[in-house]
Amino acid sequence: MTLLLGTDCEPVHRLAGALEADLVVVPLVDVERAGLDWTWSEPLEAWRTASSEGPKDRAVVVAPWTEDLGEAVALADLPIETWVARHEAPFARWFAAMGVAAARCADRGAIVALVEQPAPLDCAGRAAETGLADAVETLARSLARSEGPRGVRVNTVTTPARITQVPVSQPPPPLDSFPGTLTIEAAGAVRALLGIDALGITASTVHADAGRTGR
Question: Which of 24, 70, 72, 132 gives a 20 to 30 Å CA spacing to 126?
Fold first, then answer.
């Protein structure tokens, strides 16, 4: 069975169905009501402590997303409250969830972080989300190093499925399936990295974006 650490929102439930995964809910926090002092992080820390004690699984997927990604906003026009809601609070969720993933992944298992990220050509107005995805990728590489001695692999999959609108600027992506879907392209990349045939792959990132990123 695959363990999915994700928020209680419709896209995550669809992903859980596609992966046939057991969902453990990562709590969302009301950042706007709590303000900018990070007191909203306390429920996340309590969840991380409690959830780290659960049973271990060989396959763990992390996807603590939000229901609504919001509109693209130029960085210069982004209020600090919106930055906290779109970047700092989501990264706090990722930090907590990846910690639980490391604790709950069995020896010689695999962890995949599935993060929403626009391709470089499409990232205008998405500084908060792009920075978040880059931070998650770095976090996954760090876990790959720390968990490697017990045979645990840690990789990242990026998907633009919900964050990029078509049509996009030229040149077009190599594959006409762009931007793909969560349940086919993104879930397929996750399954590939969780599989035993990927036993030599860790600290790597797969862009499930029909070649739009180009690497």
Answer: 24
